[in-house]
């Protein structure tokens, strides 16, 4: 006899973060296939979903509070940072410094001009951190980036 209430419901927990809340919300809504209108006062949303055949608990933090970000990262296996290439002033290195050994980190540099964008290398952050250029609104480059994340979390890339 097994108790279903005590089973871990997902293989991994992925948190979406970033100063570009429109893009994090777009990604969360598309990945969870959510069609209902959400509570606009919510700061933390979490849904069980399947991503590239990996059962994940997908979390979206809708604020810029670095303390809340840190708390969510602490309990996550993977972190996706979505930053706007044209406007971002976020110091990712400082924010990620303590997380790189424990988490799989995907930095998605969101821009409408994918072909014109050049992103500096990830400063030797190791194989658990990947920086990609994408367009979340048009969903260009997103699936490939998320495939890397789920492969890393499921152990396929190790």
Please give the domain count. Answer: 1
Question: How would you write the strand order of the largest sheet?
Answer: 2-3-1-4-5-6
Average residue-wise pLDDT: 77
- End-to-end CA span: 34 Å
Residue share in helix: 10-25%
Shape-level CATH architecture: 3-Layer(aba) Sandwich
* Strand content bin: 25-35%
Q: CATH homologous superfamily? A: P-loop containing nucleotide triphosphate hydrolases
> Can you summarize the main beta sheet?
6 strands, mixed
| SSE string | EHEEHEHEEH
The tally of strands reads 6
Number of helices: 4
CATH topology: Rossmann fold
GO molecular function: GTP binding; GTPase activity
Pfam family, one: Arf
Keywords: GTP-binding, Nucleotide-binding
Characterise this structure.
The longest helix has 13 residues, at 142-154. It is globular, with a radius of gyration of 15 Å. Helix content is 25%, strand content 27%. The model is unreliable at 1-7 (pLDDT under 50). The protein has one domain (4-154): P-loop containing nucleotide triphosphate hydrolases (Rossmann fold), CATH 3.40.50.300. With 158 residues, the chain is α/β, with parallel strands linked by helices.
Short précis:
The chain is of the alpha/beta class.
List the helices and strands and how they pair.
Blueprint: E1 12-17, H1 21-32, E2 44-51, E3 54-61, H2 66-74, E4 78-84, H3 92-96, E5 104-110, E6 129-134, H4 142-154
Parallel strand pairs: 1-3, 1-4, 4-5, 5-6
Antiparallel strand pairs: 2-3
């Amino acid at each position: 006899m097994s108790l279903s209430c005590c089973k871990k419901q997902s293989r991994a927990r992925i948190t979406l973060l970033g100063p570009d809340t429109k893009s994090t919300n777009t990604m969360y809504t598309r990945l969870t296939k959510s069609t209902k209108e959400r509570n606009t006062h919510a700061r933390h949303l979490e849904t069980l979903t399947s991503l590239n055949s990996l059962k994940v608990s997908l979390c979206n933090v809708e604020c810029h509070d670095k303390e809340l970000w840190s708390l969510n990262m602490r309990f996550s296996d993977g972190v996706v940072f979505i930053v706007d290439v044209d406007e971002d002033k976020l110091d990712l290195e400082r924010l990620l410094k303590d997380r790189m050994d424990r988490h799989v980190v995907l930095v998605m540099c969101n821009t409408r001009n994918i072909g014109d964008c050049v992103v500096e290398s990830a400063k030797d952050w190791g194989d658990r951190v990947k920086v990609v250029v994408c367009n979340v609104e048009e969903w260009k480059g997103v699936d490939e980036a998320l495939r890397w994340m789920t492969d890393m979390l499921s152990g396929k890339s190790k």
